[in-house]
Amino acid sequence: MSTATAEDLFHWSDDFNVNIQEVDEQHKVLVDLLNQLHHAIREHRGKAASRVILDQLADYTRTHFLLEESLMRVLHYPGLEIHKQQHEDLIKQIHDLQHKLDYENVTITFELLHFLKNWLIHHINESDKRFGQFFAKSQNLQQYQTWNKEVEQTMTKKKWWWKFW
């Protein structure tokens, strides 16, 4: 991850923690990628450079959403379907943006960056924190510990990919 600067769009604070280590660490990566995209636009690095970062952000967002949804499924979180729909809606919006960048000569704007930032802040502070509270009270933590070991083993096997970010 990059070092935070005064010019960052999104300044991470522990107030955003949902108190699930894997989720919080991934949120920090998402914030870092959003800040990288912001810097690329501010520094006029060009459409291609911005597109590469946007693609990384989109790919990592999908990975993060799968992790969250998997954990919710394992713990029988009652808000899973609503949470999953929020994820799908954002993925569709990002996919639409990628399409516009490729075929409609649209550029990434600061307005779009602020939309992504605000979406992430709202999603973390509302939906993810609600799940964090459920997680803390869950009677299914034994299932989580088994899940966590499986995730760790999978990530170790695919370390080249996971550490790419």
TrEMBL record:
Pfam families: Hemerythrin. Belongs to the hemerythrin family. GO terms for molecular function: metal ion binding; oxygen carrier activity. Gene3D superfamilies: Hemerythrin-like. Residues 20-131 form the Hemerythrin-like domain. It comes from Fluviicoccus keumensis. Keywords: Iron, Metal-binding, Oxygen transport, Transport. This is Hemerythrin. The keyword Transport applies. The keyword Repeat does not apply.
